Amino acid sequence: MNIMADTNCLHINFATFFNERYDEKFFKWFQPAQYSEAVNQARLILHRLEEAESIIRDSILPCNEEVDDSCGLLGFLACLQCHRWRFNIPKFITKNICIFSLILQTLNLIILTLIDIFPGQNKNRTIILSAVIMISLQLSHLVLVILTSAELAKKLLSHSGNGFLLCQSYISTILLFSGIYTVTFRLNPKGWKFVDENINDPVQVVELWSKFLFLSVSSGTLCGSSSFLPKVWYNNLLVSIQMLLSFIYFASILGHSVRPTLKVMPTRLPTINGGQLRRDSCISQSSQPVVPDYGSISGR
């Protein structure tokens, strides 16, 4: 902290002033007992500043195992990593979230295409099977995005996040909503306006997903250029949620771009032993200390 560093410099220069610039008149006015009291007060100030530094550091860092009930509303996603819901996310998942998202969506399209090609004799059973598969894969994708978002929020709150993970999480969210929109259309084709694909045609599955991908990109970038419109309440809710999430992503990306990433938080200053500080603890020192002008004390 700059305040602590300035205090250290002032204390060192003040001590150097007494050692090298001995003034008998000033020393008679400023007794050693008063100097010791000033040193003790300086120690107390530094101790209070260290306590304030510790409180500030604990308030901006995510929850840890030693702190209970310290998860606020703003740090909810980061608190998924605290001791109450503590679990370890494999790093290869968070680093390759886009690849896993593409795999899940591709697997979803392949299974739906195979179901449409070989529908079977029982049509109702085929519809139920396709619905279960679609919902299961999209829920898996949703859990994956939530876990990655929790890791991302944890790093952003600790000022250690990187733009690569942020962009991957954003793209994965776009892919997730494109799959969710496809599921809702397959379950209820009348829930969307201006979408006239035949859901029973196996070729139309990929084309349908690509159109909803365009809708997801349009909603994710807040440009609104897609002609597809939700018709029922839950589709309206899904599109609204994606727009809000996209706004949060934009704010996070902008904040990450304009603010330099903080590397390592400063450690505490060395303690004062016997009123002496190391000279290297000061940020900048001059070889010739500046002697302050205290005015005339001849009248004392």
From TrEMBL:
Membrane-spanning intervals of the chain: 93-115, 127-150, 162-183, 237-258
Key words, A-Z: Membrane, Transmembrane, Transmembrane helix
Domain of life: Eukaryota
Organism: Acanthosepion pharaonis (Pharaoh cuttlefish)
Record's protein name: Uncharacterized protein
